[in-house]
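Continuing from the previous page of notes. For each protein in this section, the sequence appears first, followed by its structure tokens. Read the first protein now.
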Amino acid sequence: MKTRITELLGIEYPIIQGGMAWVAEHHLAAAVSQAGGLGVIAAASAPAEVVRSEIRKARELTDKPIGVNIMLMNPNAPEVAKVVVEEGVKVVTTGAGNPAKLMKGFKEAGVKVMPVVASVAMAKLMERSGADAVIAEGMEAGGHIGQTTTMCLVPQVADGVKIPVIAAGGIGDGRGFAAAFMLGAQGVQMGTRFLVARESIVHENFKEKVVKAKDIDTEITGTGNGHPIRQIRNHMSREYLRLEKAGAGLEELETLTLGSLRRAVMEGDVVNGTLMAGQIAGLVNKQQSCKEMIEEIMEEAGKLLGNRQ
């Protein structure tokens, strides 16, 4: 399937794997890329040399294009950006900030930059800053979210910018893929669906929580302090909301959640861990390889779109 995104990134299918902290490491990224999508390594708060190691390990598993997600709030972001250029990575997705300060170096190195945006205004700013595409992420997504739904955000962003738009948030099957394209997207980004991939290092307890989730099993914490996060509800999320409602300060709330995502992903703590997942969890009812997922999605989407290109 050829779109502006497949041509821009040199990939077979316009499917990008989300840059999920602790989840999107070299095994998952390589598997997605090998299956024809774009696998992405999440730099998160990792030191630059750890990111370098992850890139090299991914390259041992696939010769297909891979990307790196840079969280711009990370103090290590400039060093990670330098590693990306040194290692010859040609695609970067960014979140939590404006990559304008890094854009010159990326452009000189031929790196394609695709920021995640949650508004039309931010999408236009990213376009002016030199972004090659934007990822319009609706509030259905897992983890840190904005305030607008994917259904409303994607067509408005597509109308507001000339660069290609990738839809994200609540997309996990061929129907979501087809809907995103009908709304004006040229590609999709998926996180929760890949979280339960066989190649994902996520603990089996976490994966089972996602597979067994119902449509109403996610909730949003942090709305009151300006840091909304969507996750599968558990003891941790209920305690956070209780403290938030009682007027707890940000420091107390951060103490509660410190290390909780790592505990969920790596140790399988589904009681006191943070189970970041999107609303699409209600549709994810099985574990598959990345190849099986992508082929299933493309087959269903192809039928719905009538093999449009």
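Done with the first. The second protein uses the same format. Note its length before scrolling.
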Amino acid sequence: MKFTKMHGCGNDYIYVNGFEEKIEDEAKASILVSDRHFGIGADGLIIIKPSDTADFEMVMYNADGSRGAMCGNGIRCVAKYVYDNKLTDKKSISVESMGAVKYIDVLVENGKVVSARVDMGKPILKAEKIPVVTDKEKAVNEKIVVDGTEYIMTCVSMGNPHAVVFTDIPVKDFPLEKIGPMFENHSVFPDRVNTEFVNVKDRNNLDMRVWERGSGETLACGTGTCATVVAAVLNGYVNHDVTVHLLGGDLEISWSGNEQDSVFMTGPATTVFSGEIDL
């Protein structure tokens, strides 16, 4: 199988041209290629396929073989892949993922995409649609007890579920490896959850680490970054244009604060290398 490894702020995936490559067991392939010791090493597998409703379809799998609904860093890399490999000459590209269509504008330098701005769609705040179990319509400033400690979370879906926790503990010192899995598999999240632990630096800057369901800690999470800014705006911590500082780099997020408005994400997309692997 021919592949290209790419990353957005260190959130790395293996990308496959599904127009040319046919994978018999995609979930199994994701587990194999994602393994950082016996495979290529990645947070998951993304296959680019034809779409009936958009320019392309993004089929995304996590490192554990589970299907992912959306990946903000991944979709920027999809846009770079299809432009750089001349699958399209458009600089405004639509990409479908599990039925949802996102729109990406790419910035091109010397014939290659260097960054992209993605319309990530409207945030979903209704608890039952995220989903999160609560007796409230929205889980904003919601208490949750994890490992005997009470946390305050705000839950947002950007096509996948997120629990955003603002903490005074510097995120670099937060015990993410211990607490992350406990959030992911907590009983109040029927479909598991991605969890962001966040420090508010000022009205325009946030520091964030993320535990992704099915992948563990990643260096960045696009949907999680969007969910974090939505949660920060809802709680009155930030303005509407925010830089989020992640382990793998920075993402620029804009949201008006109106539930009916889209969240916009701007960030880099980078090709690491291409190769072939026997499945």
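What the second structure shows: The two ends are 7 Å apart (CA to CA). The first helix runs from residue 26 to 34. We return to this in next week's lecture.
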